Structures are given as structure tokens and as C-alpha cells.
Amino acid sequence: MPIIYYDGNCVYCYNYAIWLIQNGLSTRYQFATLQGESAQHLMENYPEARQIDSVILQEGDTLKFKSDAIARLITSLTNYKWLGILLHLTPKVLRDFGYQLFADNRNHMWKTHWHKPNDYEQSFFIDN
């Protein structure tokens, strides 16, 4: 089962997870926080993940980071597949620059709230 690791202290990261679920993310995916027990196991088994402070998509033995993970996840959504394809066509250096720019400034952006998940949405999360 693929696992999406995200910053559990980031309201935008969490709400992105909810957005994916609400827009048809397959139930084969699960979410875990980078601060949780599942992520500790990931770091033990994949030391290269320790240097990454971003979303991590684990599909079997394959890890995708930053914009590669975001583009892959958006491509999996039927109604947004076109957006995922456009992201994949954008040079990685530009995608990762945009990702990092957002990540570095997320605490200085507009205010948002933590979405209260319903039972279906909650079923995607582990380590909670």
C-alpha cells in the first residue's frame, strides 16, 4: 500500500491530503506524518529520506520527493490528471523551486484552518 508522508505540523500539508481524498484519491493510499512512528521506520530503511524535509511518496521500494510526489499524486486523480501531466512536463528544477518557495514561505501566507475529517477521510490516516 503506498504511503504519503507529510509534515504533520503544517496545516497546508494536511489540507492538501484532505483535498486529495475529497478529489478521488484511491483508497490504496495512506497518509502518515513525518513525525510519526511509520516515518521512523521509513528513515531506518531508507537513510536517503533523512535528508529530505518534504512530502515523501513511498510506492513499494520507490520513493518520490517534493514536486515529483505532488505531480504523481495529482496525476492519479481522474479530474486533475491533466494538471499532473502539466506538472510532469514542467522541468524538475522549476517544479522543485516552486515547491521549495511555497514550503519556505508557508508560515507567512494567508491563514487557513485545520479541516475536521469525516470518518471516510480519517480512514486514510495512520499514526493518528
UniProtKB/TrEMBL annotation:
Annotated Pfam families: DCC1-like (PF04134)
MF terms in GO: protein-disulfide reductase activity
Coiled-coil ranges (or none): none
Xref: PANTHER family: DUF393 DOMAIN-CONTAINING PROTEIN (PTHR33639:SF2), THIOL-DISULFIDE OXIDOREDUCTASE DCC (PTHR33639)
Protein name in the entry: Thiol-disulfide oxidoreductase
Record organism: Staphylococcus caeli
Lineage of source species: Bacteria, Bacillati, Bacillota, Bacilli, Bacillales
